[in-house]
Amino acid sequence: MAAPPGPQDVEDSSPSAISYEGPPAPYADKIKSTAADLYENAASDDEFDQVGVKHRAAAIMSALVEQEDIRIVGPLKSTTIGHELRHPRLAYLVAPFFGVYACVLTVLYIILSLVPILISAVFYRVNWPFTIVTLVLTIAILFVSIPFFYMIAYWSPDKPHQVHQYRLRTVDILLTTYKEDMDVIINTLNHIQRISYSPKFLTVYVLDDGRRDELRDFIDQMNAKGPTYPVKYVIRPNNKGRKGGNINHFIKNYEDSASEFFIVLDADMAPFPEIFDILFGAYYGYEKEERDRIAFIQCPQHFKNIIPSKDWYDIGMTFFYNCVMTCMSSLDCTMYIGTCALWRRSAIVFGGGFHENHATEDTVTGCYVHRTKVDLLDPKSQNWSSKFLNVPIAAGIAPGTLPQQIDQRLRWCLGSVQMFFEHDRFVRAAGLSWTQRVTYFATVGYWVLGIASFTVTFASSLTVLLWIIIRGIVLGVNATTFPAWLLVMQFLAFTLYFAALPVSTQLDKLRAIQMFSTFMPIYIVAYLRFKGFNIKVQTTAADSEEDTRRWHPFMWFHVTVVGITTSMGVAAIVLGKPNAVTLATVLCHTIYWWLNYFPVILSLCGFTQEDMHPRYIKADAEDPMFEMELPSDFETGSETESSSVSSRANHPAPLVQ
Predict the structure, then answer these.
(1) In this structure, what DSSP letter does residue 321 have?
(2) How far is 453 from 447, CA to CA, in rounded Å?
(3) I need a surface site. Which of 152, 456, 564, 621 has the fewest CB within 10 A?
C-alpha cells in the first residue's frame, strides 16, 4: 500500500487542493482512512482515474493537516430573513436578455412622454403654452434620466455564490460608537459573542469616540468572564474626522495586529451568528482572479423595527437594494453604505484610508477605492472592485418616524451634493470607467433627477389647470379638446415604465417613488446649503425631545404643493366649463400629488415604525450572556458621567485587553 502524501506533497501534487477543503474534526479519523484507501486503489487499479483520485485523496489529507483552518458551512438560518429582498420570479425569466428588455422599456417611455404632446398640439390644437412648457420640461427630464436608464440596462439578479466550505481568514470586527445608549452597545456585543467562527481568526474592537468609563468597565467585566471573543477597547485623544477618523486611527495605530479583513458595525447593528459564513461563502464563490481584486462585499442594512408589509416610509429601501445596488455590483462599483460590509484591509490602505469630515464619508471612501489600482506600481493593473450581496448579515434600529427620516436624509443628501461637485459630476473622475461614471452620476446625483422630475410635473399641473380656468372664465369654452387617453399616456409614462421593471414588487416600487417625491424639499435645501445659503430648520424643544413627533418644518412644502394643485383643480371644475376630459384631467393631476405625498399624510395621522419585529424581541431576550454591572446611583447622561468623560478626553487609556 502506498503511503498517503504529506502536506508538502499535497501542495506540489494538488494545486487545486483548496477547492476541496476539509472535514470537521469528529470525522478526521474516518476520512483519513478513506483517503488512504482512495490512494491505495488509485495506485493498484488501472480502472481508476489515478491522477484525479490521487488529487482528491491529497486534498483530503491537506485539509486534515490544518483542519482547524477549514470551516464547513451548514444550513444558514439567517438567509430566511430578508425575504422581501428576493427578486420576483419574472426578474429571473427576463434576466438573460434584460439589457434588451430595459432598452425597449426606455424607448416606450420616451414615446409615451413625447408623442401625446405632439399629437395633441398638431391634431387637436391644444393650448400652446401648455404644449411648449410640457415639451421643454419633458425633454429636460428625459435628458437627466439618461444615466439612470443606462445603469438599469446592466441589471442582473443577485445570486449569492455560496460555497459549502472555505479556508478561514483573519477578520477584525470594528464596533464604532460615540454616544449610543449602553444597552444598545451591550446587546450588539452579546450578539457578537454568538457568532459562529474560529476565535483564532476573529478579533473584536470597540472604537469609542465617547471615551466612556462605563463602557470600558463593562468590557473589562466581559473579558474577565472568558468570552468566546475577547473585546479590545480603543479610544483616541480627540474626535477629529468623526467616524472616518475613528476608523483611520485604528488602521494607522494597530497595523501590526490587524487582520487581513475587517468589518465595520454601527453600535446598533447586531450581527447574525452566520455572518462570516454568508460573507466568505459569497467571497469564495467568485473565481480567484476576480476575488483577489474585491475591495469589499456590501450587504444591505436590515432593521429590527421594520416589518416589510408595513414599511410605508421605505426605511428598508428594498427597491434601492434590489435594483440600484445590484446594478452597481454588475459594474464592480457597489456603493459603500457605512456598515455591514466585509473590507479587505489592503484595499482601504491603498485607497488612502477612510474619508474624513464628510456627511457621507462612507460613499466617498468607496468611490476613492474604486479609483485606486490593486497594484499601485503597475500602471496596467486593474482597479479595486466591490460586490453586493443581497442578504442581511446584521439587524439594527432605524428611525421610525417620517420627521426622523427627513433629518437623516437631509444629512445624506448634503453629502451627496458635496460629493457630486467634488468629483466634477463624475464626468472627469479619473480611474473610473465611463460606465462607472454614468452609474455614479445616476446614484449620487439622484437629487438632480428629483428636482428635475418635480419641476416637470408641478409645472405641467399648474399650466394645464391654469389654462382650463382661463379659457373657462375669459372665453367661456372648455380648454381640453383632446382624447383622454392622450393625457393618460403622457402623464403616466414614468409610472408605467417603473411598473414594467421586474426587479422588485409593485408595492416596493410604489413606496420608492412616494419617498423619492416626499424627500423633494431635502434635495432643494441641500443644494442651496451647498451654494452658501444659510437655511436652518427650526424645531421646537418638544420636537427635538419627542421621538414620535409627527410634524417636520419641511412638510410645509408638501402642504403648499397639495394645497395649490387641489385648489386649482377645484377652480378648474367650477370655472372651466367641465366635461369628461376636463374632469379626468383635474382628477389625474390632483390624485397624483395626494398619492405622492401619502407618507406625509400617514405621519400627520401618527403612523410610526417603532415596534420591534417579534423574531428580534425573542432573539434579544434569549441568553443575554453578559450584562452591565452599574453603580446604583448611575444614570445615563448624568453630570457624573459627563465629567468623567471630559476628564478622560485628554488622557486616553491604553488599549484594554
Answers:
(1) I
(2) 10
(3) 621
Q: How far apart are CA 264 and CA 125, in angstroms?
A: 61
Give the chain's mean pLDDT.
Answer: 79
What separation in angstroms does the CA of 294 have from each of 64, 313, 390, 474?
A: 29, 33, 16, 67
How crowded is residue 391: how many other Cβ atoms within 10 Å of its Cβ? Answer: 24
Element (DSSP H or E) covering residue 572 = helix 555-575
Distance CA 510, CA 440 (A): 23
Contact 389, 383 (CB under 8 A): no
Q: Which residues pair with 380 in a beta bridge?
A: none
- The pLDDT score that the predictor gives to residue 498 is 86
State residue 518 phi and psi, 5-degree precision.
Answer: -65, -30
Collapsed DSSP state (helix, strand, coil) of residue 357: coil
Average pLDDT over residues 223-252: 92
Cα 594 to Cα 597: distance, rounded to the nearest angstrom:
5
Q: Which residues contact 531 (CB under 8 A, 6 or more apart)?
A: none
Cell numbers 447574525 label which residue?
Answer: 272
Q: Residue 623 — very low, low, confident or very high, per pLDDT cuts 50/70/90?
A: low
Report d(CA 77, CA 153) in Å as an integer: 33
71 phi/psi in degrees, rounded to 5: -120, 130
> Is the pLDDT score of 120 beyond 80?
no
* 386 membership: H or E segment, kind and range: strand 385-388
The H-or-E segment that residue 123 falls in is helix 98-123
229 phi, psi to nearest 5 deg: -125, 100
Q: Indicate yes or no: pTM above 0.70.
A: yes
Nearest Cα neighbor of 187 from 398, 399, 400, 396 is: 396
Q: What are 35-81's pLDDT values in tens digits?
A: 455 445 544 444 334 444 444 444 444 443 345 588 887 666 655 67
CA distance 512 to 312: 9
Buried b / exposed e over 53-84, threshold 16 CB at 10 Å, is bbbbbbbbbbbbeebebbbebeebebbebbeb
Judge contact between 223 and 205, C-beta under 8 A.
Answer: no
**Contacts for 393 with CB less than 8 Å, ≥ 6 apart:** 78, 271, 272, 274, 275, 278, 279, 299, 302, 340
Amino acid at 65: V
277's torsion region: left (phi>0), alpha (psi -120 to 50) or beta? Answer: alpha
Find, among 393, 287, 328, 288, the residue nearest to 156 by Cα.
328
Grid cell digits, residue 70: 477549514
Q: What is the pLDDT of residues 89-98, one digit of tens each?
A: 889 899 999 9
